[in-house]
Design a protein that fits this description.
The strands form 2 sheets. This protein has a 4-stranded antiparallel β-sheet with strand order 1-2-3-4. Strands 5-6-7 form a 3-stranded antiparallel β-sheet, covered by helices on one side. Helices cover 49% and strands 25% of the residues. A hairpin with a 6-residue loop joins strand 3 and strand 4. The longest helix has 36 residues. It is of the alpha+beta class.
Length: 169
């Protein structure tokens, strides 16, 4: 079996997809911040530490929360993706085989790149908007446009193949 996919991506599309994915992470940071804040209040009123230690811990938690929330801002993601693929569009050709995915990439920054990913090396996959995101590692992912398949049957065959061969994250 060999199924082809042609995907065209820009840094705006990649940013939009990733911000959609990051919403639950941002919400979890907010929840974590409020849980830690409530613990700080309990320790302050309970007299567990002197007031200055509670104040110092609160400042550290606020600084940590600020640094984490800064990582996923749209402006920062756009800047990062602009460095990776440039101003124009990035063209990706995928060839889904029985045991691996072949990927050819061409953009302003990388004139020609080729990679082969066995399904056993992929760490997960998920649907985000109209895209399929394959995770190669914690920090590397492949974004595939679901409209880039020749037919609906090809798209369904690839999804069934991924369900069988790759653990969904």
């Amino acid at each position: 079996m060999e199924i082809k996919n042609e995907t065209r991506l820009t840094y705006e599309i990649l940013t939009d997809v990733m911000i959609s994915k990051k919403k639950f992470i941002i919400n979890s940071w907010i929840v974590t911040f409020f849980v830690v804040f409530m613990v700080e209040l309990a320790m302050c009123y309970g007299g567990a530490f002197p007031w200055w230690v509670n104040l110092l811990l609160g400042v550290i938690v606020l600084a940590f929360n600020r640094v984490q929330s800064k990582i996923s801002t749209p402006k920062r993601l756009k800047k990062t993706y602009k460095k990776i693929i440039g101003e124009g569009e990035s063209r990706h050709s995928f060839l889904f085989k029985d045991e691996e995915v072949e990927c050819h990439v061409c953009n302003e920054v990388t004139p020609e790149a080729h990679a082969i990913y066995p399904y056993s090396s992929l760490t997960g996959w998920e649907f985000i908007k109209n895209y399929l995101v394959l995770y190669v590692s914690k920090y590397q992912q492949i974004t595939i446009d679901l409209n880039g398949f020749d037919s609906e049957e090809d798209k369904n065959a690839v999804i069934a193949l991924l369900k069988a061969k790759v653990k969904k994250s």
